[in-house]
Amino acid sequence: MANRSPRIGLLSPRVKRWPEGAVVYHIYPRSLQDGNGDGVGDLPGVIDRLDYLADLGVQALWLSPFYPSPMADFGYDVSDYCNVHPLFGTLKDFKRLLAGAHKRGLKVMVDLVPNHTSDQHEWFQLSRLSQQSPYSRWYIWRDPHPDSLPHMPLPPNNWRDALDGSSAWEWDQGRQQFYLHSFNKHQPDLNWANPDVRDAMKDVMRFWLDMGVDGFRVDAVYWMAKDPLLRDDTPNPDYRLDADPRYDALLHNNSNGWPGVYSYLAGMADVLREDAYKDSPRFMVTEAYPSGHNAVSDYLLFYMAMNPKVAAPFNFEGLSLPWEAASWRYFLQTFHQHLSEVSPYCVASYAFGNHDQSRLVTRLGELPARAAALMQLTLPGMIFIYYGEELGMHDVHIPPDRIQDPAAAGDPAGQGRDPERTPMQWSVKRNADFSTAAKTWLPLALDYKTHNVTTERDDPHSFFTMYRGLIHLRTKSPVLRYGELSVLDVGSPDVLGFVRTKAGETDRYVTLINFADHPVRLTNAAVRKFVVSSHPRSKLHNALLESGVELLPHEGALFLE
Ligand code: NOJ
After folding, report:
1. Is the pLDDT of residue 497 over 80?
2. Any idea which residues carry the catalytic annotation?
3. What's the pTM value of the predicted model, to 2 decimals?
């Protein structure tokens, strides 16, 4: 009789899915590389830069929308979910991009915009035809407010458009009703309470999954579910008329974030588990900025609703937490502890920048931004890097006659989100080598001759050298990529310390971040070997560690314990 080896007690290591520990590079397609000389970035341009991305060492790309769109919100107003806007190329170009990325071992995530379409989308065109149209209930249509006067229809409630802060309702002469648009009057909200809408969006997912994309970034998910009674939003008591965007005058407690969102997303995540996609794991990351009193619980609700093997919410603390040790200490401790309790499959997903937010260097300043990069790249989970952050790109002031973003209209500074969307800075050449056009869609940063890939590549102290070094280190180290995180007490209120460990690995990495604008000396940080610092003038040195660790103002550093 064959001698059967005993299986009991043998634990095979869990196979890691690609998102675990992956660094994801966020591409705003208009701004990475112009391939055809029209001043706007495109997919062939991205293909030309795949070698750069592979060399940078990232594991995946996320592309903001490149679909057909009238561009009322720069592609977040989609008029056809299953095609490519001619400005960006063709579907064939996308397939080439996908194949080129896969050949280099890079995964590709595309943007999915489920809450709204363009008003030019066929579904909306059919919906607005009449109340009898089969698409009638695909969008959110309502009669005027009962207080309306004849010939003066008033919107059904006080909800506001998130981009420019005007009413979120637009009167449609044909249907004699208002439609809801949470973002821009050219972006009508789909009616997710309608199962036909939910099925249609799942088909859109299958279209891209069948083509081979590895996942989705899912846009503006809180807006998918609103108060079914459409009650007014509550006025914001802290609103400052001259300083805050108009949208912030209300609290938005009824216009978004209702519980339906969790079941809608759970249904979408289930598509990624369908038999057709079993062989190559897919993943989706949902965009929802915490709005409640406790960001940890806001995030956990998504992990509990969606299957964590295939989905996670973005973690936006790198955009919203105050840059101070105490806030980060509390957040990291509570968040990671709870996450591991929900399921061992939960993947954190840290984005410290994106196309809607002021750039890291502009928000924090150069040295803190460098420390933030070191911190982000040594945290667990998916790490999202917005294009150009690896060069230390900053926001660019846009002259009024060159403003593009509709959100500029509701912004007291009149800039909107254009400052963080300017062209990528590749070299000292004209237009930073982004484009051969006479005029690029947004102006370039004036300092592109010093802050660009070619110049920074040769500088051992540049942002680029630091980012690239950290990304490669993370990729090579199973501890940094897959390990657990525990917060350390390092004996200083100004310093955040955490350790990364992994069962079966002897290396233990310690990250220390000095948030203060003065140096801090730590005498009880148990570190053995200095690995890398974020500070260009760091004094850290292995020979000195025995007598303590001296961190410069705003220095972040990585050690082995
Ligand atoms: C979030 C996107 O990131 C932003 O750019 C867009 O304007 C809104 N959602 C609406 O789609």
Report:
1. yes
2. 219, 287
3. 0.96
